[in-house]
Amino acid sequence: MSQRTRPWWENFVRGLRHAYKKILRLKSSPHDIALGLSLGVFIGLLPIIPFQFITVLVLAMALRCSKLTALLGTLIANPLSIPFLYFIKFRLGCFFLPDLCSRYNPEHWSMSELLQTGWPVFGAMLLGGVLIGLPSAVVAYFLARYLMELYHVRRAKKIAGSPYKRVLPDKEPNSPPENNAP
């Protein structure tokens, strides 16, 4: 018997669906889930690639928000988006710090020259990351909170209309009986 192997995009879609379902099933409040996601998006947009997971976990524990959504939020900086994000961060940082970046031209850099430039480039990228990250985190927070609250409302309506819902008694068990005599 030969087993059919899935193409890579089917595995990718299955992984996304699994992460989505896992977030929906979290027992945290919409605020905690949204705060975790926005924290992850903000940290994911900073140029601290080797330390993103550690930083976001420490901050998520300190803020008592969802660690899972914080980790998933950092995935905004993935191998496909990093070159574009870094270029935009650098350009934005150089726009606000022209003296710092006046002697650097990224079109003529080799990797060794980029590594030798050091702190001025990192400072410009850090400023650009903060300027992109703050509005992105705010949008991610309100969007995630709205979507989670919408999901909870729809789920409550679905459970309320279910024929399998738990039937609750009309009266409290310890309440005195009503006297319906005329």
Commentary on this structure:
By secondary structure, the protein is mainly alpha-helical. It has one domain. The chain contains 8 helices and no strands. The protein has helices spanning 8-24, 30-44, 52-63, 67-73, 82-96, 98-101, 111-117, 119-160. Helix 2 (30-44) runs antiparallel to helix 3 (52-63), helix 2 packs parallel to helix 4 and helix 2 packs antiparallel against helix 8 (119-160). The relative contact order is 0.12. The mean pLDDT is 81.
How would you describe this structure in keywords?
8 helices, 182 residues, elongated, single chain, mainly alpha, 65% helix
Mean pLDDT value: 81
Shape: elongated
Query: What's the total helix number?
Result: 8
Structural class: mainly alpha
How many domains in all? Answer: 1
Give the low-confidence spans: none
Instruction: Return Rg in Å.
Output: 25 Å
Order of helices and strands: HHHHHHHH
Major beta sheet summary: none
The share of residues in extended strands comes to under 5%
Query: Which percent bin holds the helix content?
Result: 55-70%
Strands, total number:
0
Distance from first to last alpha carbon: 80 Å
